[in-house]
């Protein structure tokens, strides 16, 4: 081969390599800012109860954050759920959390002075209300819960908030017409059919706590029909975050046998405070979006995190750091 041809081949190889490097650089720019030192320090993330989706998502997100920001320490806190999570972030006891939109709005409606500190980072995925009974139970509707032993969630959970509204919509006083219990997904499934006649749960689907017992024993879902959802809407301004839907038949295949379940859904939000460092919040927002598929392989609900809908964090305004990220990837 002549020297001229060799020089041309080298030039083409270098050009091709340069083009590949540019393409790779553009990909990295979308994933991580080039030439920028990752944020460091310590943040606190409030999750949820054991065996719940909030806690599992929090653990997996912590792992993803460690890849992008190896010098950022993320402390996870268990909690009762949405109501406690919102208060923790608003009062500074946690820096980031996941909470259902109705719990966030209820906190605002209650007129807490710290409400103005809250900001949205991303809309994540939907929670489905799941009313669970033994397979041979005579409970066929929410109205049939009267006189029964019913777990309505922990005192500061999102489950407690929505279960109370559903019961009232069905004409049931949660304090007088049932025997209320405070079980969550960590204890409710084990007590079903023994100390409990039914329990409410609200989360992304499937939830490990239910998925586990679906493999060894059986249960049944009680439908929450559209008329009941309409009655819930009439109770509170925060109730407009609920929508009538069907839990997909793929949520718990061995239990649903191909059937969907009429129920209520409400969106979950990743939230923080107004004074959170914008640069840190931008990096965290980026990780949340780009880790969707990785986390979604373990937490099915995470598959529904979508860049196109993540910006809709109503009733909260977007944090400036999150806003900066969404603007940077806007087509």
UniProtKB/TrEMBL annotation:
It holds the Pfam family NMT1_3. The keyword DNA damage does not apply. It comes from the Bacteria. The chain crosses the membrane at residues 12-32. Gene3D superfamilies: Periplasmic binding protein-like II. SUPFAM superfamilies: Periplasmic binding protein-like II. Keywords: Membrane, Transmembrane, Transmembrane helix. This is Putative Secreted protein. It comes from Streptomyces viridochromogenes Tue57.
